[in-house]
Specification:
single chain; 169 residues; mainly alpha; two-stranded antiparallel ribbon; 7 helices; globular
């Protein structure tokens, strides 16, 4: 396969494989909250199949953007995205729970400022709401979902900063 990685047949096979994976994720859309659809539980907090699939899809898309034509079916299998994504979801859940236990909060202003600094949403060095809306729409995200993800990321970062600030080398 490596010798013929630029062949049209390999690209078609790889495309079909990706479509099957995406189709698998679409099958579970809208079922978040169903206890039978829980893939893991972290201190009684469920992690749902839909969350896992979204995380896997983001990882695959990220690697596909980085490696372009060099991204192969072998690479897809070797990187074990599902295992990595589940580990990440568990880690973030634990960190979020600890941040909540400590009473850490993220303000709306902090979320707004973080979003405004994302390079993908900037045009001519300034935040563009139109570009923000288009990028989210093209990635199948609602602004409220993206903002919730940003809030969670910021809370986790606050906890990490708090932990790191107490460590002296």
């Amino acid at each position: 396969m490596r010798k013929r990685q630029s062949s049209i047949l390999i690209k078609v096979i790889f495309g079909i494989l990706l479509l099957v994976m995406v189709g698998f994720g679409v099958q579970y859309a809208g079922v978040e909250g169903n206890p039978a659809d829980t893939v893991a539980e972290v201190n009684s907090q469920p992690i749902y199949r839909q969350q896992l699939q979204r995380s896997v899809s983001r990882m695959v898309e990220s690697y596909r953007n980085i490696y372009k034509e060099g991204f192969s079916a072998e690479m897809l299998a070797a990187l074990k995205f599902k295992d990595q994504a589940l580990d990440d979801l568990i880690r973030v859940s634990l960190l979020r729970q600890e941040a909540e236990r400590l009473g850490l909060e993220v303000t709306d202003e902090e979320v707004r400022d973080a979003i405004a600094t994302v390079p993908a949403f900037q045009q001519d060095g300034r935040f563009s709401f139109d570009l923000y809306s288009r990028v989210l729409r093209s990635n199948g995200l609602k602004p409220s979902d993206f903002e919730a993800m940003q809030r969670e990321d910021l809370m986790v970062r606050k906890l990490q900063d708090l932990l790191i600030s107490g460590v002296y080398v």
